[in-house]
Specification:
Layout (H helix, E strand, L loop, with lengths): L1 E5 L3 H12 L3 E5 L3 H8 L10 H10 L3 E4 L2 H7 L2 E4 L14 H13 L4 E5 L7 H16 L5 E5 L9 H6 L4 E4 L3 H11 L9 E4 L1 H32 L3 H9 L20 H14 L5 H14 L1 H10 L7 E5 L14 H11 L3 E5 L4 H7 L6 E3 L3 H5 L4 E4 L11 H7 L4 E4 L6 H6 L3 E3 L8
Parallel strand pairs: 1-2, 1-4, 2-3, 4-5, 5-6, 7-8, 9-10, 9-12, 10-11, 12-13, 13-14
Helix pairs in contact: 1-3, 4-5, 5-6, 9-11, 9-12
The protein binds nicotinamide-adenine-dinucleotide.
The site of nicotinamide-adenine-dinucleotide has 26 residues, from helix 1 and helix 5.
Length: 443
């Protein structure tokens, strides 16, 4: 089948590459000329495990092309995925400018039947707006043409995106059009061969499902973060509590990790967008308001603790940061907790030296010229002479570092473990002053 994908970001690239891998002829179009030039030169603009090889293989096989030529891209296929960004607007709502621009482009260039698939995360009612944007263009051209708009939210996780797309837990299709439904069923059939995991529902329910999923996951983490503070106050250990509750299959083990707050390209913006949707619909979401508030407090926790330990004037102190990406497996820094921590430390006059296994190029671009912030070549280089080490991302390589070397390199052996990666008792035995999150056990 021929397929067009709008957007060559985390979702668009993975979607295009995985669809090509199944034998489809895919054209991926983006407005970012540099990004398309890089892709056409064999480069990959994002870090996503396995994506390099997949892109190379499918480009070489002639199944995958990148272009900025939107007219040609629209002409290429009946099936057009929209996987462009939906960043937060000032008021917290999802900014649909890119989605509607892509829809307008489709309307402007289409010459025959199209099935337009909203893969971007978009609020309830967006499919109607995409429909209207296309209708508007067709009317302006005076060419009535048939088309359908389908909602197909994406659930992939950065860092495991290829696997998630290839072996999805479920594929949600919001579809009111029989012909479009059949087409999408055919596209996704290879991904669900062993067990049908296609959930077909109405468009508005599909749109809401994506926000509901992210809001639920964010809620679980905020719940544990709030409980972590209580555990500390009571002398209990949130990690032991996590094991205790996670073994109940009704609760499950995922997304129960207390830490220095959630971030990334999806949770913060999607929670805020859902809050906005609730307010606009006259159904304020008070639980979700608390979820967001708890997270804001949590993101400030590490720097507040540094202040409590070293004083509010941090001039003369260097702090080492391990991990800048919002989670392991990605170079994505969007709304990462590290942004909050770096800002807070720099504002208090400290110097920050950071290391991240893959996010260094993006970090260099983000903090370029920021006084007091530097990047180190190795984890150990980052800690040399530092007053404390702050661990922000639980990359595997940070799990079992050479603690003796670490202690010797630090000016003071102080650890702020924002991901509860290390064992408090072991750290104390090794001579560290250890600060975890919710690790108040008095044993
Ligand atoms: P991204 O910022 O990495 O990529 C978006 C791309 O769209 C950019 O390359 C941009 O240049 C391009 N673009 C913008 N306007 C365009 C237009 N008119 N035509 C063609 N290309 C255009 O974004 P992302 O992380 O891939 O997210 C895309 C959408 O998917 C968002 O709605 C996001 O919420 C959702 N989503 C993201 C993830 C994730 O983990 N990143 C997971 C599930 C869903």
């Amino acid at each position: 089948m021929k397929i067009t994908v709008f957007g060559a970001g985390y979702v668009g690239l993975v979607t295009a590459a995985c669809l090509a891998e199944m034998g489809n002829g895919v054209v991926c179009v983006d407005v970012d000329k540099d990004r398309i030039a890089l892709l056409n030169a064999g480069g990959v603009p994002i870090h996503e495990p396995g994506l390099d090889g997949l892109l190379q293989r499918n480009v070489a096989a002639g199944r995958l092309e990148f272009t900025t030529d939107a007219a040609a891209a629209v002409a290429h296929a009946t099936l057009v995925f929209i996987a462009v960004g939906t960043p937060p607007a000032e008021d917290g709502s999802a900014d649909l400018a890119h989605v509607l621009a892509a829809a307008t482009t489709v309307g402007r260039h289409m010459r025959d039947y199209k099935v337009v698939v909203d893969k971007s995360t978009v609020p309830v009612g967006t499919a109607d707006r995409v429909h209207a944007a296309i209708a508007h263009e067709l009317k302006a051209r005076g060419t009535p043409l048939p088309y359908a708009v389908v909602s197909n939210p994406e659930f992939l996780k950065e860092g495991a995106a290829i696997d998630d797309f290839m072996r999805p837990d479920r594929i949600v299709l919001g579809c009111d059009d029989e012909q479009a439904g059949l087409l999408l069923r055919a596209v996704y059939a290879p991904f669900v061969r062993n067990r049908d995991r296609l959930l077909i529902m109405d468009v508005r329910s599909a749109e809401l499902t994506k926000y509901a999923a992210n809001a639920m996951l964010a809620t679980r983490i905020s719940f544990m973060n709030e409980l972590a503070l209580l555990a500390e106050a009571l002398g209990a250990d949130i990690e032991q509590v996590r094991h205790g509750i996670g073994s109940d299959p009704r609760i499950g083990t995922h997304f129960l990790y207390a830490g220095c707050g959630w971030g990334g390209s999806c949770f913060p913006k999607d929670v805020r967008a859902l809050l906005r949707t609730g307010a606009e619909a006259g159904q304020p979401l008070s639980l979700l308001q608390s979820v967001l508030r708890i997270n804001q407090r949590q993101r400030a926790l590490l720097s507040d603790r540094v202040e409590a330990r070293f004083g509010s004037d941090l001039r003369g102190h260097v702090f080492a940061l391990w991990g800048l990406a919002f989670k392991p497996g990605t170079d994505d820094l969007r709304e990462a907790p590290s942004l909050t921590v770096v800002d807070a430390l720099l504002e208090r006059g400290a110097q920050v030296v950071a290391f991240d296994p893959v996010a260094m190029p993006k970090a260099a671009a983000l903090w370029r010229g920021r006084e007091g912030f530097t990047l180190a070549d190795t984890p150990l280089d980052a800690v040399r002479g530092a007053s404390a080490l702050l661990l922000l991302t639980e990359w595997r390589e940070f799990r079992s570092p050479d603690f003796d070397a670490l202690k010797a390199a630090l000016r003071e052996p102080v650890l702020f473990d924002g991901r509860n990666l290390w064992d408090p008792a072991q750290m104390r035995e090794l001579g560290f002053e250890y600060h975890g999150i919710g690790r108040g056990a008095r044993t």
